[in-house]
Amino acid sequence: MIAPNWIRNSILRREKAEPLRNELHSRKLHTICEEAKCPNIGDCFARGTATFLIMGDTCTRNCRFCAVKNGIPKPLDWKEPERIAEEVRNLGLKHTVITSPSRDDLPDGGASFFAMTTKEIKRINPETTVEVLIPDFKGEIDALRKVIDSGIDVLSHNVETIPRLYPRVRPKALYSRSLNLLKEASTYSSSLPIKSGLMLGLGEKKEEVLDVMKDLRRVNCNILTIGQYLRPSGKELPVERYVPPEEFQEFKVLGEKMGFDFVASAPLVRSSYRAKEALSNFRKKR
């Protein structure tokens, strides 16, 4: 399926990412932007922003939409949190996003490493806000609380798609588990912004998307991102449909009516899209 003009014309040339890409590689740092082949990498890297990928570049799961390689991960690099904190300072970031592959091989799913990275960023960059985009930690609530207690400013976990498509799109994940994780986060820390994201174009119906949005509001999710699924390579699931911009706008309007504090909904929106602005909006409304 050929991508329509509103997709092709919006993606800046990836060459613009080279300067920051080379700097990050020299510091042995990974970004989800590069590993997941994000279409916005040229735009974000050109502006000096990136979403750091901690705990290596190998995932223990096999989500069918994701380009991050799966297999047996390497041992943790305990100096990585300090290197990331220093790079946040070098880039002058006022808001940074930290994510990871699923690390089901670790006792707490990597929650301790998220906490360590957050604390190190805050130590070196006390004015920087930290957003974490976490895996589901197999539903372990103690692991979730460990991350929240580290001083994060935004807790994000993506449901990614509608429940009906989970067996095909996220075979090792559970919709109910992801939803419960967000619920537990909002219950444990009622003042913490809770965020999630959805991809469209994998065969979902409008009513199913709206049902997921309602589910997210029921667990007090405050911030929502909705974007077009783009096939990273020939190995991942094909695109079933390119959703036109006006439909994304409709979901944005409906989401705001449901009570989300911030909704970013457009073809190239990804989890970290306008992340700092989303946090600012949440705080203003509180």
Describe the protein's architecture and organization:
- By secondary structure, the protein is an alpha/beta fold.
- The protein has one domain: Alpha-Beta Barrel (TIM Barrel).
- Helix content is 40%, strand content 14%.
- The protein is built from twelve helices and ten strands.
- It has helices at 5-8, 18-26, 32-35, 41-46, 80-91, 111-124, 141-148, 166-169, 175-188, 206-218, 245-258, 275-285; strands at 30-31, 51-53, 58-59, 69-70, 95-99, 129-133, 154-156, 194-200, 223-228, 262-265.
- The strands form two sheets. Strands 1-2-5-6-7-8-9-10 form an eight-stranded mixed beta sheet, with helices on both faces.
- Helix 6 links the parallel strand 5 (95-99) and strand 6 (129-133).
- Helix 5 (80-91) packs across helix 6 (111-124), helix 6 (111-124) packs parallel to helix 7 (141-148) and helix 10 runs parallel beside helix 11 (245-258).
- The longest helix has 14 residues, at 111-124.
